[in-house]
Design brief:
heterodimer; A: alpha+beta; B: two-stranded parallel ribbon; globular
Amino acid sequence: MGGLIMIEREFEITIHPTGQVEVHVAGVKGKSCLEVIQFFEKIIGRVEDRQLTHEYYEPDENVRFRLEQRR
Amino acid sequence: MSVVCVIAPVVVAAWPAFSSAAIAAAGSLGYQVASETSRLALEARQPATPSEVRLEVPGSEIVTTQLQRDQRLAVTRDGVTITFSRDARGQASLCVRGEGLSEETLRALGLEMSQAVLQQYAYQRIMDEMRQRGLQVVEEEQLEDRSIHLRVRQWEG
């Protein structure tokens, strides 16, 4: 029996009636969250505004885990 | 939460993807599809009359082939007809017609539709990409102000 550690990331996306898309990235610290923003920028359009919260300046770290068992 | 960003959609699509977003947008605003045609329409190239207004879908580009160049889509609601087409520069445009309505009203209806197309295009792009990448949409709701809210979860192992 082996263990598999899964890392969870969560995105909150609001698509406004004007077409603007607001993305909140949760569960990702450090610069890796910018990669997520770049991913959304690539599929949707161009970033108009970006606000970094204090967590951005914290070291990269996985904040939530789920442990699954594989038989 | 680490980052909050606002992204303005840029519509770069072939006609089928654009018309799919336009039909969804029309449906969300209570319009019905009147016709979709690839015939060349001379009226679309003539100057707008007082009872019609033309607008562009900002930041749009309809990628097309020579055969698809003149495709158009018309939707109607309460005597107002909005026709989507691709202009000579490749940008998506829409023409709003409604007898007895002021230019200001027609322009407002066109702007509402143009924004709804951007919203639906962004929604379809996000959902397609989520599906392709195996990301899980765990929550989806339409808010009172017509915003679409999604919560997406990604597991990496």
